[in-house]
Structures are given as C-alpha cells and as structure tokens.
Amino acid sequence: MAEMIRDPRVMKKAQTEVREVFNEKERVDEIYINELKYLKSVVKETLRLHPAAPLLLQRECGHVCEINGDPKYWIEPERFYPERFMDSSIDYKGSNFEYIPFGAGRRICPGSTLGLLHVELTLSFLLCHFDWKLPNGMNCEELDMTEIFGVTVRRKQDLYLIPIAYSPLFTT
Ligand code: HEM
C-alpha cells in the first residue's frame, strides 16, 4: 500500500484490474485470484524491494557505493516497478537466486502459498472497495519509507491512509 500510494499510476492500474475482475464476478473471491496478473506483480515487486525476512543478519552499507557500475539482474533496481514481473519466468520457488523472498532449497518457506494468498486477497479487498489517500494533505514524496529490522523487517513509521468507500453503483 505504501509503494502504491507513492505511485498513483501503479495504484490505479492495480485497482482497475481488481475492479474489472471482481465486478464482473460480482464478488471478491480467492478462486479468481490468478486472474489478477498485475496485482500479483505488485506483490512480487513488494517482496523484491521489501523482503519480510531477509536471510542472515541484516547489514547496512555505511557508504554510497557502486558495484561494477551495471545492474546485472534488475533494470533500475531501486525503482518500484511491478511491470518487471509481467511475462517474467521468475517465481517464488527459489531457483532464481536474485529473487528469494521465501528462501530457497530444503529450508524454503513451507507457508509461502498460504502467505501469498493472504496478502493477495487482502490487498484485492482493499483496492476493490476503497480509494486511498494520504492524510492531512500530505504529499506522497513526504512518506517515510524507512524500515527497521526485527525478527521480520517492517516499516519504522506506521502507515496511515484514508479509505474512501467505493461502489461502482455511485460512480458517474
Ligand atoms: C508473505 C509471507 C511469508 C514470507 C515472506 C515468508 C518468508 C520466509 C523465509 C524467507 C523463510 C526462511 C527460508 C530459508 O531459510 O531459506 C521462511 C521460513 C519459514 N516459514 Fe515463512 N514466510 C511467510 C509466510 C509463512 C507462513 C504463512 C507460514 C506458516 C503457515 C510460514 C512458515 C515458515 C516456516 C515453518 C519456516 C521455516 C522452514 C525451515 O526452516 O525448514 N511462513 N519464511
């Protein structure tokens, strides 16, 4: 939600997809979740930029540095850009080592399917039934994206957003 509120283009695109699929089916339901190609890319991109459980001890680089000057695996690696996963063969199975939000190998997360379903379904509900805006006239560039490390990584500042109920019946 934080990445999408920072980029209204992505929010709009994900919302349009969710509303098209679920309005047609007349309800939000997990059986249609695989039709949400863009929303799934949003979740993938979120787990790329913000892995909930980075492996090993977390470290932070003390200096700005450039490694070989050429991003080998990701184009514009720091950018939140879900489109990079559309039509990509990279999945969650841990066979692409540049993307292992659930780990890899024998100890890969056994709860990934359940975890993803919860995230995707919850996000679908939030996008389908509400429009979202920042409080107090806050600008999206002002949103603090600092993360803190614990057992899992999370936002340092809680995210406050204003939901505006949406119903296709009341739109013009
Ligand atoms: C989006 C949600 C989730 C993320 C991002 C996530 C991520 C991870 C990661 C990165 C690991 C370490 C894998 C490794 O050592 O290579 C892990 C392990 C594990 N996860 Fe998850 N997980 C999620 C949801 C869940 C859920 C819903 C469950 C249980 C219902 C679960 C159960 C476990 C267990 C038991 C392990 C330890 C596996 C082992 O060491 O053999 N996870 N998870």
Automatic annotation (TrEMBL):
Main location: membrane
Subcellular location: Membrane
One GO cellular component term noted in the UniProt record for this chain: membrane
Residues binding heme, per UniProt: C109
Cofactor(s) the protein needs: heme
One MF term in the entry's GO annotations: iron ion binding
Keyword Heme set for record: yes
Source organism superkingdom: Eukaryota
Keywords, comma-separated and alphabetical: Heme, Iron, Membrane, Metal-binding, Monooxygenase, Oxidoreductase, Transmembrane, Transmembrane helix
Signal peptide boundaries: none
Presence of the UniProt keyword Ribosomal protein in the record: no
Topological category with respect to the lipid bilayer: Single-pass membrane protein
Protein family membership: Belongs to the cytochrome P450 family.
Protein's name according to its UniProt entry: Cytochrome P450
Organism (species): Lupinus luteus
